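Homework-ish question, so no full write-ups if that breaks the rules, but can someone show me the predicted structure for this set?
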Amino acid sequence: RIPDVVIRRLPVYLRYLQQLMSYDVDTVSSQQMGHDLNLNPAQIRKDLSIFGDFGVKGMGYRVSELADKLSKILGLDKEIPIVLVGVGNLGAALCRYNRYQKSATKIVGLFDGHPAKIGQVHGSLEVRPMEELVDFVRQNNIKMAIITVPAAAAQSVCDALVAAGVKAILNFAPVLLNVPEGVRVQNSDVTVELQALAYYL
Amino acid sequence: RIPDVVIRRLPVYLRYLQQLMSYDVDTVSSQQMGHDLNLNPAQIRKDLSIFGDFGVKGMGYRVSELADKLSKILGLDKEIPIVLVGVGNLGAALCRYNRYQKSATKIVGLFDGHPAKIGQVHGSLEVRPMEELVDFVRQNNIKMAIITVPAAAAQSVCDALVAAGVKAILNFAPVLLNVPEGVRVQNSDVTVELQALAYYL
Ligand SMILES: NC(=O)c1ccc[n+]([C@@H]2O[C@H](COP(=O)([O-])OP(=O)(O)OC[C@H]3O[C@@H](n4cnc5c(N)ncnc54)[C@H](O)[C@@H]3O)[C@@H](O)[C@H]2O)c1
Ligand SMILES: NC(=O)c1ccc[n+]([C@@H]2O[C@H](COP(=O)([O-])OP(=O)(O)OC[C@H]3O[C@@H](n4cnc5c(N)ncnc54)[C@H](O)[C@@H]3O)[C@@H](O)[C@H]2O)c1
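A: Not a homework solution, just the prediction itself:
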């Protein structure tokens, strides 16, 4: 089992390599990566060596080859459809951002509990009512979801998603979600990010 | 020097302990913490032992005592004023969320480059023009900032913040910011979060 903290760094490496590719950079050293990402180069080499021997002596890593390898490791070589529940301030901003990113993780369904939101269009997606959630998740074999509803509604939304077959949830509501074995929850919280940053002041 | 990955877990422990305190829980074991946070209990014990001996044999950790200690370690025992630049979809959602959290990390100033945004009120804060940013940061001795402007504007906003004395930046724009030694940038990206989650599917 690979430590979670290593897995969390892989998309950061991937994003960086994709930025280099947009500047037509062919190779990059772990030193350069470490400097740009504010990470320890030895840590980067150690992380990547878990997955294979990608480095070329004296040249560093081949950028596009390593990016492909990381995409495969993360399972991003095929589209990962996602539903988002709670199309408020935050949900709308995340949906818009997702549209412009070229990632395999694609929001394909928007759901909300408020009648006034139903039918609103965000890019090519229309907000659907919660009654349609379970059928939509099952019919489209959705395994991942984003929760951006208020804290009080989050657990019941989570339960509905899990019952429909979702296995991975990115939760923005400030509550600890209870899920059965086999379902993974990742919490994202700007307050936690700011507090970690505060340590370095 | 304590590894960054340990520092990033401390606010997660703190948030969890605060949730326990709201349920009047006095003590908690590392087993229970590990189960609730989906973390390895041995890792939790190792992280906390870096900062002192908080555990009580057979009882676990005293919740409020440990929460106080973690707040002090992170420097949250005093208010940390923050400016946010770019009061669009995402910026507005973060500002609203920050208002409702009881954290020491407090957004005290909002800035935006679009004339139509100036004067908009978010809670008790009014959006100010970019011309006022440097004076505001200097006069209020602000050391931390959030960037939620479009990618094309992010580096120039970052430069202005650094010139005014900001030392820690939470960046949401999808670009790698260049900063001098002594300034810390933390990037937050929902795509990176989703891609890390994809690994577990
Ligand atoms: N983690 C972070 O960094 C962060 C940042 C901002 C906001 N938040 C949190 O994200 C959530 C959303 O914030 P926001 O500012 O977008 O709020 P919002 O009120 O603008 O949006 C919430 C949306 O959820 C919908 N909703 C409410 N109950 C529902 C239910 N039972 N089923 C389906 N939909 C339901 C509402 O109709 C609304 O559209 C809140 O929990 C907030 O605390 C977290
Ligand atoms: N990291 C993430 O997970 C994530 C999620 C959503 C959006 N984003 C990013 O966050 C940023 C904001 O997204 P949004 O949906 O809120 O966009 P938005 O267009 O709604 O808001 C951007 C705001 O920045 C202001 N602005 C533009 N140029 C400026 C400048 N030079 N100086 C000061 N203010 C300026 C605009 O007036 C606007 O109010 C974008 O870069 C977007 O890509 C990131």
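Now go work out the reasoning yourself. Hint: Chain A has two domains: 4-73, 80-192.
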